[in-house]
Amino acid sequence: MSTTTALAAHHAPRPGLIRRQRKERMAWIVRGVLMSLLALLFLVPFAWMVSSSLKQNLDIFEIPLRWIPNPLVWDNYADVWTGERSMLRYFSNSTVVVVATIVGELAVVSLAGYAFGQLRFKGQNALFLAFLATSMVPAQLLLVPRFMFFRQIGLYDTLWALILPGLASVFATFLLRQHFASAPRELGEAARIDGAGEGRIFWSIYLPMARPALAALAILIFDSTWNDYESALIMITDEAKYTVPLGLTRFMSEDGTVSMGPAMAGSVSSLIPVLVIFLIFQRHFLRSMARVGLR
Asked: Which positions fall inside the ABC transmembrane type-1 domain (predicted)?
């Protein structure tokens, strides 16, 4: 009996351990509540945009704010998709630009990242530092030279003027370089001993290992390209070639007034592809960000 009591006393939780567990649990609850409140705070503008997209223009800025529209004005979405200011063509143009940019940029930066991360050649570090230094140049300073260049080669006012500049990204190359540099070199050396070439090693061994990083980059490229207003404003003049950000300006009249209901409906519609892509690839995105954080 005494032995059982001694064992029970030995395995019983210590008071200090219990207090520490309670504090950790309370801290976890507090962090969860604060993060939830912060998330709700960031969702407020989106909720207002969705609510405004279903209101008449005069009801959008009424005070006090009415979150649930009455009546529901679905004509705003009909105007966006089937009306005279239909955005279907703009969505098609943005889709072409985004898909071409994602495929091209992932192909270019994965090859560059592999070269900087796994291969060894003379001047490698100096070349990589020089490449990183280009990121210090503000993108706005390149708009005028880019405009003049594309105009001279005949690609101005075409979708290629939006696709080609996005094929080389310093950030994406750096991210994949870090990923490939952390991959085991023994795998490549073993493949070379077996007679595999660099192309086969890259395609069959290292590229599949970079799938989470590529998925994360695809999300970031999609988001930045889909919402790129500045480049499209400079490079595109033909309305038939407008992308979604430029297409939203069609809801502004010549005197500067904006049809807020249809404009909000168009903005909500433009967010749907971004949300869908993130939900599809979020597992790979979070996995890649976690691996980057661990490094």
From this structure: 91-281
